[in-house]
Amino acid sequence: MAIDPLKYKPKGDKENSEFFETYKVKIYERRKSSGLEDLLDALRALVVQVEHGDAFSYLRELYLMGPYRFAAAFQNETHRIFVLESHPDYPRFIVLEPLSPDYVDDITMRNRLYPLSAAKANARYVGEIFQTKDVDATRKILESHNIRFNYHHETKNAFFTDAQIAFTFPSDYTSNRVGYSEIDIADYGALQLGEPIEIPAEEKGKLDAIEEFAKQHKLDELLLGVDHMATRILAGEREDAICEFLTMSNYYFWGAYNIVAMNSSTNVTRNGSVQDDKQSPAKVFTANNIPSFVNSFENLPMPTEDFVRNFGRRMHHIAYEVRDGDHRGGEKNVDYVVNTVKHEGIEFLAHVVGECKDDPDLKQIFSKHSEYSILITEYVERCHKFDGFFTKTNVAALTEAAGQDERYQHGKVFD
Predict the structure, then answer these.
(1) Is 153 exposed, middle or buried (0-12, 13-18, 19+ CB in 10 A)?
(2) Residue 383 has what pLDDT?
(3) Residues 6+ apart with CB under 8 A from 403
(4) Which strands sit side by side in the sheet containing 223-233, from one edge to the other?
(5) DSSP readout, 186-219?
(6) Is the pLDDT of residue 415 over 50?
(7) Closest Cα to residue 149, out of 133, 126, 134, 165?
(8) Which of 226, 257, 265, 336 supports an S-S bond with 12, CB 3.0-4.6 Å?
């Protein structure tokens, strides 16, 4: 049954401002009256760009750590474009790789502003693509709501302008884009992503070997699909970022919780028209409760804001759901998955958190940042039909572990 956002009461203990509560309702009402609610369907693809020369290494990482497998490849004037798929009802994964080591665009310039993203200046989570019944009508409605779209003279990468996908400008609050397409996501030719290309036999062999490894070790049975994606933003921009995404999507504000131990909040939006979040993954927004310059008075932990100061506003992690169950000897499936990929060289930030004994609970873990995408991979197992995305204890532990790995020493400030 679809969720009516106007009747839904959000979960959580995070208090929002009167501004947020007022405009959240106005946004829902306008989405319905403008026809946007009727046009938009599920989220159909996630887009990530990597540095020149990193695409096949990243594809191998995706093969090992998740359910995605190569489907097609294309080339336009500036990029190679790789499309991966898992379950047909779940979003595709699109990887962009610049053809030139000297490629520079707005992504490059954004990354160069921050000390810990500058080394991989073209590596960034780009955004999501939504299915729509009418892309021109969607663009017209959203432009009337002051959402800016990319046109040909504004970007070098034809993926954002020449494909049958209309992309917004990167958000001022999250640096993520949103795309819209009326083309069936499985019809890669009709999407007009570029000229079809073959991947080298040697690279195909390496991917096939990882796929066979995943089958032999049952990883393909246990790694189900993307559960959620989490963007980290600045404290003062939390409500603006959420309202902006609600404006551009058919998602609703599920709820927000204070993570007091980490001086942050976790804010969740979901697609109320799907039965399974893996069909249209939740989007999570994480922010400090107070900004860094005020925290200098309080001296509270602030790994979330430190991440933004060091990497910029951007996607922090993508979470995969692990099938609930025991693998062997009482070992939970998520523990087995982590131990298996660890042996293949994947590093994690800490141990798996969460108990998962006899009561509903959640087991979660963060990997280290990908060398190629700068994204963290999260594994999450919902035990005994746990309803939700996190527990406060788990989030505090994961946030602290990530914060230790995301620090930057600059002069006398160590954050």
Answers:
(1) exposed
(2) 75
(3) 262, 301, 303, 304, 306, 307
(4) 11-12, 251-259, 264-271, 282-288, 223-233, 314-322, 376-383, 361-366
(5) T-HHHHT-SEE-PPPHHHHHHHHHHHHHHHHTTH
(6) no
(7) 165
(8) 257
Report the helix count and the strand count for the chain, using DSSP H and E. Answer: 13, 20
> Which amino acid makes up residue 115?
P
Distance, in Å, from the CA atom of 350 to the CA atom of 409, rounded to the nearest integer, reads: 22
Distance (Å, whole) CA 157 – CA 160? 6
Each residue's pLDDT tens digit, 292-337: 999 989 999 999 999 999 999 999 999 999 998 888 777 889 999 9
Strands 326-328 and 314-322: unpaired
Query: What mean pLDDT value characterizes the chain?
Result: 91
User: What is the C-alpha to C-alpha distance for residues 398 and 365, in angstroms, rounded to an integer?
Assistant: 7
pLDDT band, very low/low/confident/very high, at 41 (cuts 50, 70, 90)? very high
Q: Label residue 205 exposed, middle or buried (CB < 10 Å: 0-12, 13-18, 19+).
A: exposed
257: exposed, middle or buried (Cβ count in 10 Å: 0-12, 13-18, 19+): buried
pLDDT at 394 over 60: no
Q: What are phi and psi of 264, to 5 degrees?
A: -150, 175
CB atoms within 10 A of CB 203: 16
Q: What is the pTM of this model?
A: 0.94
Q: Average pLDDT in the 115-120 region? A: 94
Which whole-number Å values give the CA distances from 321 to 65, 162, 256, 388, 398, in the listed order?
11, 34, 21, 12, 16
Q: What is the pLDDT of residues 212-241, one digit of tens each?
A: 999 999 999 999 999 999 999 999 999 999
The single-letter code of the amino acid at 282 is A
CB 258 within 8 A of CB 265: yes
Whole-angstrom Cα distance, residue 276 to residue 323?
13
Residues 6+ apart with CB under 8 A from 231: 174, 176, 241, 283, 284, 285, 286, 313, 314, 315, 316
- Give the tokens for residue 184: 């069936």
Is 411's pLDDT higher than 70? no
What is the rounded CA–CA span in Å between residue 221 and residue 323? 8
Q: Calculate Rg over the CA atoms of the chain.
A: 20
Letter for the amino acid at 193?
Answer: L
Matching residue, tokens 């070992």: 331
Average pLDDT in the 107-125 region? 96
What integer pLDDT is reported at residue 413 of this predicted model?
43
Q: Which two tokens stand for residue 362?
A: 């959640």
Q: Are 359 and 318 in contact (CB under 8 A)?
A: no
